[in-house]
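In this supplementary section we document a worked example of the pipeline. Step one takes a protein sequence of length 385 as its only input; no multiple sequence alignment statistics are reported here. Step two produces a three-dimensional model, which step three serialises into structure tokens for compact storage. The input and output of this example are shown verbatim.
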Amino acid sequence: MSQSSRKTCAFFLAASTALAVSPWSSWAQDSDSDELQKKIDQLDVQIQSIDTDLAATLAQVKRERAEINRAERAIVKIRQSIDKVLLDMGRIDSELGDIETEVKANQNSLIDQQENIKTLLRALYLNREGSALKLILSQEDPAAMARNLIYHSRLTDAQRAEVEALKDILEQLEQAQSALTRVKLERVQALNQLEEEQSNLVAQQTKRQSAIAQLNQAARSLEAQKAQLLEDRAGLEVLLSELYNEAIFGAEQLIKPFSEFKGKLNWPTKARLTKRYNASRNGGLRWQGVKFRNKAKDPISAIYTGRVVFADWLTGYGLLVILDHGDNYMSLYAHNAELHVEEGEWVETGKLIADAGDTGGQSEPGLYFEIRYKGEPINPASWCR
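The serialised model returned by step three reads:
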């Protein structure tokens, strides 16, 4: 709790104590009206000081939330980079495996050729040592025997050439293997650096969340939360109004009207429903959609064919996707960890559009989902099953 907040709480305690021990009769008996007005003025100054401290506390909350939003975006980008590095490392491991298999095959071929050469050289040596005696005893044609010796000699030369070629191939494979190993080491170093950055950001997020909790405790007012929720909703209403006025559902997309599928659509996630449409929430507000309790990275799917009219960050909703299904129907998917679609893209029913997450200041992963008609929220449970 900040020093100003402690002063605020101390003042409330002091004021309440003073009112408890000082009866109104003592004030009424005070004949000096100027003194009474002076006391009122002093109370006004103290109240103004409290308002100033509260405004400063709420401003600090806003700054901390802005930093959380900025860090969450950075974490999302780091996670995407980590996924790319891991994918690249998988490809390198696959190539290294192929090279290792090829190296073993060529090494076996090299050993076989060397053994063949040894056998031929041994036979050639024996033929040459006993060639004169064989010629006398066997009475074979000398020319034929000479040709046979030349044939074996040439065969041995060819096998030697093949051995040299195999050695060259093995050398090239070992060079490629070394190069890939170096690249993999660089990827491992990059991965370690990204994970360290992510860890630091998460640690900062934890500290900021703790700071916000303390500031909210100091404020001791649901009005601040209500104002934030109204601000978030106002921003979404403005966005939806703009999207409603600008979105054009392409006539070239020959699909059945969204209205024909009322009660037949699948939910965008298989997770458990935790908040239902129109249920009460903090600040006297009500849920305009439904909330799910997801695991991180749970797949989020489009409930029906449509055009992506928004796929970006929105304060209070984190990474948000809005689909236009035509005929003034839209669906919203909030608090995602990662988006798999872009604005202007057409998606089909059941297509993966995002991964569940906790962006937008959520304490745990969970999809927030709405269906809107002409910009007004309607009960998703009447459409999905």
